[in-house]
TrEMBL record:
The keyword Membrane does not apply. This is Damage-control phosphatase ARMT1 family protein. Keywords: Hydrolase, Manganese, Metal-binding. Its cofactor is Mn(2+). The lineage of its organism: Bacteria, Bacillati, Actinomycetota, Actinomycetes, Kitasatosporales. Residues 32-371 form the Damage-control phosphatase ARMT1-like metal-binding domain. It holds the Pfam family ARMT1-like_dom.
Amino acid sequence: MSEPVASAEPPAPAGAPVILGDVPGSFPRSVLAERHPALIRKVRDAFPYGPEQRRALDALLKNSAEGVIEPLGERARDREQWEAWGGREYFGRPWFDVPFLWSESYFYRQLLDAVGYFDPGPWQGIDPFRPFKLAELDTPEADEELTALDELAGRPMAEQEEALLLGSLWGNRADLGFRLAAAADETAADSQLVANEGEMLRSLFTGGTLCVVADNSGRELVPDLLLIDHLLRGRRVERAVLHVKPYPYYVSDATTADVIDALRRLTAAPGAAGASGHRLWSAMTDGRLTVRAHPFSCAPLPYADMPDDLRRDFAEADVTLMKGDLNYRRLVGDRRYPATTPFAGTTAYFPGPVAALRTLKSDVVVGLDPRTETALVAAEDQRWRTGGTHALIQVRR
Ligand SMILES: O=P(O)(O)OC[C@@]1(O)O[C@H](CO)[C@@H](O)[C@@H]1O
């Protein structure tokens, strides 16, 4: 267990308001009111759960729409942890009235409870999202992406690195929760970077330790692993630490089991992808690639509240790569910042150089050039914030 934090309220470097789920027509509200019920139904249909689990899923469906947030059961081993993470303040309140980051995160914890994920018994440890995660790895698109590596292998190392960095960045669109929203368009032509500090990021690969805080499994984790392999192989970093979630979370977030599935997928592939998979496998066995699953990875709080042991881990890295939208929200704080708020200011607390690789899938954004924001708003009003068609690479040295 990580150390309890004193307060669940994120610090307010810029005094920007915390995002709640209570604004009609807002993105957070649509996640709570539409995506979550759709997800419960999807999980319910994906397994032959027994009557007790079905009843619990139905109860969660009703509770999350019209009830108040309830504490975990007496036997839950992380009951106190969730109380310390903000439960004492939020239990008894409607789901929509508390910080969006908190309600969304707690929803996933409650979903696992409903299917008996933590209870001793036959369903213990059965990942309710696994069928969707596995299906991801077994698509013609995944095959194509791996085959493309054969061609890339003939290019200069710097070019390979840039391509793999972008592969890891855009892999973040492969988010199963996001795809529950009908608007997600895989082939959007206007995909673009709203901030690109990729050069600066690459200058931080200087032969030391790289931390990657993973986001989604499947078609995001595979390119993350390929990037790690490239950096290890070229001695751009000496070792890599991959942070994953200790239990299933936000549908497709990577756990250790998902890392193993991704590695198996790679080692079974022909050509450059297979070779990369075998190198990664041995990097894990000799300790150059380590996987960590810290409890705080599933905390409903910003990283500014991280416990000391995790802080030490990040402090030892030459650079930490934060992958994805949720990690971005936790890195800068889930707040309504002006988009031009400096990234360096919102991440000043972080104990070492840190970079965000993220496609934009929620309201939060900082570090934009004023002209970029003006052009985005002129073209799309505020849709660019949540549509997943734009991305960013931001760095604080
Ligand atoms: O961290 P990821 O996978 O990039 O994105 C996760 C995410 O987009 O999914 C939620 C909506 O379902 C958002 O609130 C959240 O930020």
